[in-house]
Write a structure and sequence with these properties.
The structure is a single chain. The protein is α/β, with parallel strands linked by helices. It folds into two domains: 2-48 and 363-378, Roll (Urease, subunit C, domain 1); 53-343, TIM Barrel. Helices cover 35% and strands 26% of the residues. The strands form two sheets. Strands 1, 2, 3, 4, 5, 14, 15 and 16 form an eight-stranded mixed beta sheet that branches. β1 and β2 form a beta hairpin.
């Protein structure tokens, strides 16, 4: 079946232009060219039409498995389908679900979720139940004793497409401000003495496990050459270590110092979309707007809030004098390039028909229709 979107403000790397886009089955076939009669013709009324969004790091699935503290939803398939609907409604057509291997969190909630999440994602994909395409992003916590067996188990999984190196040891990276980390734990009702015991144990684990786990991770990647990201780099030394390990993506640098070093090293730099929309970091790290102002952001990630991705891209355009094609590129063609997804991320004949139609309602982007591989998954038929 062929579908023609007419009277659309098309968003490409060259800018915006009123025109049309046609796709047949799963593939874009025409852009701007005079098109023959299509099976379905949709007047987009001047709305934006852009590539489907690509999300490389989201923890949103966890909220569907654990909707409240200590509440574990028993139906994993229902949880993934809820998450899938949420990301689709946000305009995301390719999502890398972030799964934590190894646990700095002393209550180890995430340890109970690994198999359940991966099994649910796999089942939904195999049964064709998801609206959009899901892959796995394995977040590897190097300062934990259980990491190696988990990597051995899950690195061969066919849906794995990305790996990141994490280290949440107290006093460095995301938690370089120990007071912020203590506040984080105190919200669980732990006493000061209990918190000090937890931090001491985490530091000991780092001293015992971090170096060997990093080595084991890099050895495994020789057999499974997925894109590799560093996480929460804070110093030039952190960036230099990542570069030596072959890291091409810098996720959420926590300081300007680290972001500047990543730029000099030609890494892709990822900033949190919620950080930008909210106006700052929830953990006291560098604000995304500071990185934007210094041209130190290539990609945006919704992290824990899918709807933030599109909102942040328009905010970058509106508030920082950034061409719209550059800000939209942060959530479409830039992540496609960083993740080596050559079949999507652009409005271009021959690529996957992952498309969304967006109308601005004031400052709020309204996702009116979404197509994933040519199938409409959000919005009314016409």
């Amino acid at each position: 079946m062929s579908t023609l979107l007419t009277n659309a403000t098309l968003l490409t790397e060259k800018g915006t232009q009123l025109g049309s886009v046609m796709f047949e089955e799963t593939v874009i076939t025409r852009l701007h060219d005079p098109a023959p009669v299509a099976d379905v013709v949709i007047d987009c009324e001047g709305d934006f039409v852009m590539p489907g969004l690509i999300e490389m790091h989201t923890d949103n699935l966890e909220k569907c498995f654990v909707p409240r503290p200590q509440v574990h939803w028993p139906d994993g398939l229902a949880a993934i389908l809820t998450h899938d609907s949420q990301v689709a409604a946000a305009g995301i057509t390719t999502v890398y679900d972030a799964i934590c291997l190894g646990f700095y969190d002393d209550n180890q909630v995430r340890s109970k979720l690994i198999a359940a999440q991966i099994d649910a994602i796999t089942q939904a994909e195999q049964m064709g139940m998801n609206k959009v395409e899901h892959y796995l992003h394995l977040r590897c916590e190097v300062s934990t004793p259980e990491l190696k067996p988990l990597m051995d188990t899950y690195f061969p999984h066919p849906l794995v497409r990305m790996v990141s190196i994490m280290d949440h040891t107290p006093g460095q990276r995301q938690w370089r401000d120990l007071e912020k980390m203590k506040i984080f734990y105190s919200k669980r009702g732990q006493t000061d003495e209990e918190i000090e015991d937890v931090l001491s144990e985490l530091k000991k684990n780092h001293d015992v496990w971090a170096i060997q786990n990093r080595k084991d991770l890099l050895d495994l990647l020789r057999h499974y050459p997925h894109p590799l990201a560093s996480h929460d780099d804070t110093t030039e030394a952190h960036v230099a270590e990542a570069i030596a390990e072959g890291v091409k993506i810098s996720e959420f640098p926590t300081t300007l110092e680290a972001a500047r070093a990543a730029r000099l090293s030609e890494q892709y730099i990822v900033a949190g979309a919620p950080n930008l929309v909210r106006g700052g970091s929830h953990s006291g790290n560098v604000a995304a707007k500071e990185l934007i102002q210094e041209n130190l952001v290539d990609l945006l990630s919704s992290d824990y809030m899918p709807v933030s991705l599109l909102s942040a891209a328009f905010k970058v355009h509106e508030q920082f004098n950034c061409p719209l094609e550059d800000s939209i590129g942060m959530i479409t063609w830039n992540p496609a390039d960083a993740l080596k997804l050559s079949d999507r991320g652009r409005l271009q004949p021959g690529l996957r028909a992952d498309l969304l139609r967006v109308k601005l309602q004031g400052a709020t982007p309204w996702v009116r229709q979404v197509w994933s591989a040519g199938q409409q998954v959000i919005g009314s038929p016409n």
